[in-house]
Amino acid sequence: MAIIETHDLTRKFGNLTAVDHVSLSVKEEEIFGFLGPNGAGKTTAINMLTTLLRPNEGSATVAGFDVVKEANKVRSTIGLVPQDLTVDEDLTGMENMVLQARLYHVPMSKAKPRISEVLGLLGLTKAAKRKVETYSGGMRKRLELGAGLIHYPKVLFLDEPTLGLDVQTRVAMWDYIRKLRDEQKITIFLTTHYMEEADTLSDRIAIIDHGKIIAQGTPYELKESLGGDIIEITPYEENQDLKEILTSLSAVKEVKNAGNVYRLKVINGEETLPRIMEKICANNIKIRKVSLIEPSLDQVFLEYTGRTIRETESGQEDVWRMRRYLRRVRG
Amino acid sequence: MIDEVLALTTREIKKWFKNPFLLFMMIIQPIIWLGLFGKALNLTGLVNIDTSGLPPEVTQQFPQLINQALNSLFGTEDYFTFMAAGMLSTIVLFTAMFSGMSVVWDRRLGFLNKLLVAPIRRESIILAKMSSSVLRGLFQALLVFSIAFAFGLQLGNSFGIFDFLGIFFALFLLSLGLSSMFLAITIRIRSHETVIAVANLLNLPLIFTSSALFPIRQMPDWLQAVAQFNPVTYASDSVRTFVLHSQAGIDIATVAANFQFLIAFAAIFTIIGLMLAQRGLSKN
Fold this sequence. Notes:
The complex is a heterodimer of chains A (331) and B (284).
Chain A: E1 2-13, E2 16-27, E3 31-35, H1 42-49, E4 57-62, E5 65-66, H2 71-77, E6 78-81, H3 93-103, H4 108-121, H5 137-147, E7 155-159, H6 167-184, E8 187-192, H7 195-201, E9 204-209, E10 212-217, H8 219-224, E11 229-235, H9 242-247, E12 252-258, E13 261-266, H10 269-282, E14 287-293, H11 297-305, H12 316-329
Chain B: H1 2-17, H2 20-40, H3 56-74, H4 79-97, H5 101-108, H6 111-117, H7 122-150, H8 161-186, H9 192-208, H10 221-227, H11 231-243, H12 252-281
Helix pairs in contact in B: 1-7, 2-4, 2-7, 4-7, 4-8, 4-11, 7-8, 7-12, 8-11, 8-12, 11-12
């Protein structure tokens, strides 16, 4: 059964269509990855699903409730862990959790055990009495995650859950997210621009670019859809015959060249590569570089858009430092 | 809904008490104001003019004359008492001016989004901002009152608990009205610089077109007309009436008129603030 369903969901900002007729459905208790480069419309989509923004067109239901007409019912069934750190730095971890519980009308008798359960699950029991100011980036994100869980939501929305975290912390975060799904039996909808995050974490993925869904499926299906492995060959000098020679091989399904770089789609790359090399040698063509690229979501994205996902990690830490600084200065 | 407002107000108050520097500033600021402004402008000091060239019959009359003049001007011989009473309204104004600031911060830090996805009423968010601003203003006013007392505020000889409550009721209404007004003005603003600019633009006119620091009777007619619409005037006058409560009693009709204005002011802006909550807080 689908717990999230959207039909032609659209949101415009002036002339820009941030989300363009997006239709998708998310099954119960799955981790659904929404993958796309920065500015593709992921956050706008999440903002509509969590009732923060109204769609201009189309509709969406979460847990059976319409996000526009039954906004308050949607709100009480979901948890949102936004991109920004929204826990209050001036309060302790525990105080943040209690505030969250009160905002979701969880009675204190129920909230107390739930808070200790969630804090335990996320390894924050010891830090609970400390001001959030003293937490590391990873701890803050975990607390944020915990805050989204207090009211037993059916769906948890995670907007870029590991943005700006270092590699070890990111891997630890993935473990926590999997643990949540397994132990709490909730559906997780996450956005990310990290390929490997979408790949290792999600049961199913939708790839979004310029507001449109360009591919949907399990990571395996998406990679399969590439129709094999990719081999890139760069000869020393451009050769008119090379394309024909390569195409004549039965294992080679497709050859595209961008200038001097030949991009081959092949079946079973590891075994085909030696055959290709033999053939090229037999024709006396000198090769500068050969690479065998295993199918990855990066390749899927490249295949559908002709671009790779832009990596924009730098500067995030600076932004956070500035925010922390500004908050302390506030009067 | 009450629990929502309580939870959010508790958050604001907790944040405030966890900031020792802020608390220190809150105590030191009124001391500076009262000390510098109140004592530097101590008009009673005018008595110490050089009178050596005048015959003693005249100089003997001098203090009395000046006291009479001060009394007719300020309603008391002590300008410090007059000013300190007005300072209570001024400090409430200063606190209320920045009621919108925390909305800007909550918006910037994403905390507002967290509130907007929670199943709570939008009005609760605004009410919590109002109530924390009012509590803060009243706490500041209580500090100023205590400090002024220590500095030599002369209470009228019939001053009692009801006068004290009256003072704080007037300040409560002023604070509620002003906090709501500034919240309503700044609710859509996204930068704190703009909030500061708005506050600075409005604060001096509000103080100087009121009776907070100087009686309006001495103002030109047009300024008096403006002062008639300034809530700070009504609050200052009410506070002063209670502070100076003497055996002569209080003019109930004037007090009632003052409160009438203050209640209307607070009610109108609270309603406007709540009406703006739904649209003003949401994204786009």
